UniProtKB/TrEMBL annotation:
Keywords: Oxidoreductase. InterPro entries: NAD(P)-bd_dom_sf, SDR_fam. Pfam families: adh_short_C2 (PF13561). Belongs to the short-chain dehydrogenases/reductases (SDR) family. This is SDR family oxidoreductase. GO terms for molecular function: oxidoreductase activity.
Length: 268
């Protein structure tokens, strides 16, 4: 079983920070051509700093992933640099709290636009290019792989993050739906739902609330927080030929956290 992504070209959104940045960097280190995409140009520059400004395998693109023009320009940037795209990892996420019953500060529309529609629209653009690339490819050739990064909020909604929870659940359903649409074209679409991963955001949260660490460990049967590379490894698997017969699936990487009854967890 080959898990190699060496020589493949990947677009990773949300790559300026956190989990997206970890996945993009992980892919470069394993020989992929990677376009780091994010709305924050300063964070993108920092994310690719370790690879050098002249690295032929790295490009960065700053733009709002919820805008069609930015999506089209991102694809153009990728094709100009590498002439093709084999992998798309939709990691871009926006998390905003709101009062669920206060319509004046409701974040539902913004969450759906940023966390659902941006990924779906980019998938549509990239899939069309993948299909075109495969027109003269051998019958056994795998056309492409798309992975959407989701959250436990998709299955276990958080009241103060209702918009984010709804958008996360919708993204997982979109993953399944697009998997069916694109299966005849040999494009696989899967998702990764994660639990507690030692991202930049979590590190910041633990500094502000040190007691959060004990709560996480107690609520995770494996008793630890995952390293960001462990999530990247799961994404690499889904993008590799080792997962060539896997599509429409949501892979949960949470150390067993979703298996645990939260009430029982307090009794352990």
């Amino acid at each position: 079983m080959s898990l190699s992504i060496h020589g493949k070209t990947a677009i990773v959104t949300g790559a300026g920070r956190g989990i997206g940045r970890s996945i993009a960097q992980y892919f470069v280190e394993r020989g992929a051509n990677v376009v780091f995409a994010d709305g924050d140009e300063a964070s993108l520059e920092q994310a690719v700093l370790d690879f050098g400004a002249d690295n032929p395998h790295v490009r960065r693109f700053a733009g709002n992933m919820a805008e069609r023009l930015s999506i089209a320009n991102l694809l153009s940037t990728t094709l100009d640099a590498f002439d093709r795209v084999d992998i798309l990892v939709n990691t871009h996420r926006l998390v905003k709290a709101s009062e669920p019953l206060d319509t004046e500060v409701d974040t539902l529309e913004e969450m759906l636009r940023q966390n659902l529609l941006a990924g779906v629209r980019l998938t549509q653009f990239v899939a069309k290019r993948m299909i075109k690339q495969a027109e003269n490819a051998p019958e056994s050739h795998q056309t492409g792989a798309i992975v959407n990064i989701s959250s436990m909020a998709a299955d276990r909604p958080v009241p103060t993050l209702l918009g984010y929870s709804i958008a996360s659940a919708a993204l997982e359903q979109a993953t399944r739906g697009m998997a069916l649409v694109l299966a005849p074209h040999k494009i696989r679409v899967n998702g990764v739902r994660f639990g507690s991963v030692m991202s930049h955001e979590l590190q910041t949260g633990l500094k502000e609330k040190p007691e959060l660490r004990d709560q996480i460990l107690k609520g995770t049967p494996m008793g630890r927080i995952a390293a960001s590379d462990e999530l990247a490894e799961a994404v690499q698997y889904l993008c590799s030929d080792g997962a060539r017969f896997v599509t429409g699936q949501i892979l949960t990487v949470d150390g067993g956290r979703s298996l645990l009854d939260p009430v029982m967890a307090q009794l352990l």
